[in-house]
Amino acid sequence: MLWGVGYTFTSGADQAWITDEIGAERAAGVFVRAQQFYLGGTIAGTVAAGTLGLVSLPLPMVIAGAGMILLGLVLSAVMPEDNFHPTPKEDRETFRQLADTFRSGVDAARRRPVVRTLVVISLIAGLASEAFDRLWSVKLLTFHFPAVLGTSDPALWFTALALAGTLLSLTASLLLNRFSPERLQASHPTGILATLAALDVLGMFLFALAGHLWLAIAALWLRQIADTVTSPIHSAWLNRHVDSGSRATALSMVSQANAIGQVAGGPPLGALGRTSLRGALLASGLIWLPIPALYLRLKEVRSTTEVSPRP
């Protein structure tokens, strides 16, 4: 509960802050680079947590919590806020400003096709992902894990698969950033986002239908890579279409749409999974299916707008 409350306050705030400080055009490259550092940290953290967990299971959690507190204290001292202009105390009307900010976020979603469509995409992704993210491990446990280092313990396998998937995602992000940076930082990255969403669907379907362990693992890695590369491109694109005053609210609205989708989609698909695990996983893929088309539809709207004559 505490984690959820904290995430609600920080969701969208860090992206809005960095965009205000360095500008929307530079933010795309920073988000991609930040994702790469995040993946590198995930690899190091997974290894460290696994090692410390052998000593005491709560130990890595306590150290991680202390690290987050320390990070907050450090950032409070070193984060610049050169482009943040707080309202003078005598002019503050907190609740009215909260309402105005919320209305401006809703207005941005209503007036701008990109923001509106990304909210819908986030809702669909939430509907599809909750059951898949909870059931993929159940599916893997239906397979027989071969012995490695004298053991076939699923805990060892799941740790190794997490590390390998993160490493592959980091490699894919670095390669795209090296050989096709213009796609990652494009003003309208509809093509690459539609392609990544299609790969996500392919990974979900392949995993649901897989009858062999290694095919299921490959499908999982495909989906993980697609999700990892999508995240910073999606965030940068959204930031470019929201005004500074309502940016954090609009970003949070997109995140909340995903959460609403998870709450609405998780229980019925989970119930389906009790009778047919494959059926629930396939249903998740079917729900995800419209997302590539929604990205491409935005491209069509943009093209129509660009060639329309001025009034």
UniProtKB/TrEMBL annotation:
UniProt keyword annotations, A-Z: Membrane, Transmembrane, Transmembrane helix
PANTHER family: PERMEASE, MAJOR FACILITATOR SUPERFAMILY-RELATED, TRANSPORT PROTEIN-RELATED
InterPro entries recorded: MFS, MFS_DHA3_Transporter, MFS_trans_sf
Signal peptide range: none
Protein name: MFS transporter
Transmembrane regions listed in the UniProt entry: 61-79, 113-132, 155-176, 197-222, 277-296
Pfam families for the chain: MFS_1
Database matches in CDD domains: MFS (cd06174)
